[in-house]
Amino acid sequence: MTARSSQVLMAEGLARSEQVPAAVEACYDALAVNDAEPFAHCLLAHLLLEGDFYDEAIAEATRAIELDPDCSPAYLALGLAYDRRGGMWDQSVLVWHELAEVVPDLVTAHVQLGEAFAAAQFEEEAIDSWKRALELDPKEARALYNLAIAALKREGMATALPGFRKAGELDPSQDDLFFALLGIRSAPDRAVDPAKVREDRDSRLGAAALAARADDLFVTAELVRMVLDEDPDDADALALAAFTYLKQEAANEAMACALRAVAIKPDLATALYTLGVVYSRRAGLSKHAARVFIAFTKAASQHALAHVLLAESLLGLQRYSQSKKAYRVAIRLDPACVRARFGLAAVHLTEGLHAEADWEVRRAAYYDTRRQGLFWRLYDEYAEGGAS
Amino acid sequence: MATEDALRLYQAFVGQDPAEAIRVIESVRASGVTQAQLFDTLYVPAMALLGGAWANGEVDEFAFTQASVTAEQVGSFVVPPVGRQDTGVTVVVGVMQRDRHTVGKDIIAAALKESGYRVNDLGLDVRPADFLERIEETGARIVIVCAEMLAVAHSVVRVREMLTTAGHDDIVVLVAGSPFNAEPSLAREVGANGIVHGAESALRVLGKVVADLEGGEVR
Q: Is the dihedral of CA A190, A194, A197, A200 positive or negative?
């Protein structure tokens, strides 16, 4: 464990509870006592970055690295500050490269390095970096989005779109959307036991949805079957069955159940979602997917991802301006929606708006690193006495 | 009638009889339903019937899976055609000499190809003489010249001059790139007939140009 002064510990506590001004003040207090404490400098860099003071953040992070070249959170803050400031791609490449050396299994370092390379027009090196990130984590959605953008630049939207969809499917937020439609926010603490579920329709369906959230698809199927045995025209149960089949890659079964559910209840959001996803995965059904997702966005208008799904289906139809509108709605609803940011970047590229595309990719990076809480992960690991 | 056909297709699915399923599809097609309509008018109701049969227990889990496999086997017979039809219109595309920015050109070219245009992509750093040569080779009547730098954008006038000198006044020259987006009058100055502001704009402008040229022989 690396020792930290009490002032730094206080600043940390304030920063973690997002009391930024007080935390900044505490950092300066810590530095007044000991100007050579890397923790205080890198913490201050992180806080200054939060306040969009890029040059100041760069200075503090640089000082932290000078004091300790293994200070991994300082590299993160420095790289992000360079990226957000813009126009410093050569420095940015160096920093992300350094971070990837200091913490070799840090996937985000490779993704960021790729983005820095891409911004500096080193496309091949960028692609190599994203591939390296995917070697470390095959589900790294941001690397896949970036590869889709790279494919768009080289071969157009028809090649890029499958990449966007694949990235989207790996993105857990898509499943989150389905469960949010059912009012389920997180997986249950305990496994669902069908024997203990009350014998009424609502309890069974609720338990089936919870089991699906926990990826216990057998239990889901069992409970859904009980509901359908009571009422074969229960559209909610059919929609949940469709989702369960979709999760098992059984597209036709999913389509059959979803179509039956939609026939019974045409505006049922969960059924529309599943049907739209099935259609969007099939070549030649982009128009059908768009039609379904238009209905879906009406049924689930407050969900950003619903608009993203519509936007992606419109990309497949080369309706870029309509797609842009849908992406913008998604971003308005959820500014942190990485998938929407990358999609909008793609649309900007089709319009020749390269600076706007780069900006969206940078915003996506900002929200993605924030969502991951990466600074604190590196900070805590560093405080524990190792880079990783 | 449509319901009866859907029922027959559904029965072919449940009977795991892809040959019968194809016969049903072909008979519906022969009755005048287009490829683009088959999915909605036949396949969707048949699949909904299958979903309903599974829900009410008419078909068990195993039969449902087997029927879905049959549905998959004949899926390609009902899916609307993937690519757009060949428009028969040739478009020459390239990045002007002394410019190596290819992204905009690549995206436009890909969008046009996807929409059925015959795209002749000359790549980057293309001399005006190369544009002329390819236009004469292919008989194309539309050319898109891309330029991302101001000095290069000004030099696009050399393409128009070369076409005029060679007696190709009727070739439609479209320009693309940031300098033209920022200053649309520049397009007129270099003798272009219009500006393409990206992929969707290219499709829209080309659609209009082709419609205008329809009276003549568009290749």
A: positive
Residue type, A221: A
Q: Which fold has domain B90-213?
A: Rossmann fold (3.40.50)
- Return the CATH number at A251: 1.25.40.10
Q: What is the ipTM of this complex?
A: 0.82
Domain match, A119 and A180 both = no
Q: Does B80 sit within 8 Å of A287, measured CB to CB?
A: yes
Q: Of all helices (H) and strands (E), which one includes residue B129?
A: helix B128-138
Residues of A in contact with B99 (CB under 8 A): none
Residue A57 is part of which domain span?
6-138+373-383
Q: How far apart are CA A313 and CA A330, in angstroms?
A: 14
Domain assignment present for residue A344? The answer is yes
pLDDT at A190: 83
- Considering only CB atoms, which chain B residues are within 8 Å of A256? 47-48, 50-51, 54, 64, 68, 71
Confidence at residue A128, expressed as pLDDT on a 0 to 100 scale: 96
C-alpha span between A128 and A118 (Å, rounded): 11
CB contact at 8 A, A66 and A59: no
Residues facing residue B196 across a β-bridge: B176
For residue A114, tell me if it sits in a domain.
yes
Taking the C-alpha atoms of residue B47 and residue A28, their distance in angstroms, rounded to an integer, is 67
Q: Of B181, A318, B203, nearest to B192 (Cα)?
A: B181
Tens digit of each residue's pLDDT (9 = 90 or more) over B184-203: 999 999 999 999 999 999 99
Pick one of 1.10.1240, 1.20.1270, 3.30.70, 3.30.1330 as the CATH number of B2-78: 1.10.1240
pTM: 0.86
- For chain B, which residues make up each domain, given as ranges? 2-78, 90-213
Of B52, B103, B181, the CB nearest to A153: B103
Give the nearest chain A residue to B73 (CA atoms).
A252
Sign of the C-alpha dihedral computed for residues B158, B160, B165 and B168 taken in this order: positive
Contacts of A260 in chain B (CB under 8 A): 48, 50-52, 55
Q: State how many domains chain A has.
A: 2
**A335 and A243 inside one domain:** yes
Q: For chain A (length 388 residues), average pLDDT per consecutive 10? A: 80 93 94 93 95 94 95 94 86 92 90 92 94 93 93 86 83 86 86 89 95 93 96 97 95 97 97 96 90 97 95 92 97 94 95 91 89 91 72
Is A72 within the bounds of a domain? yes
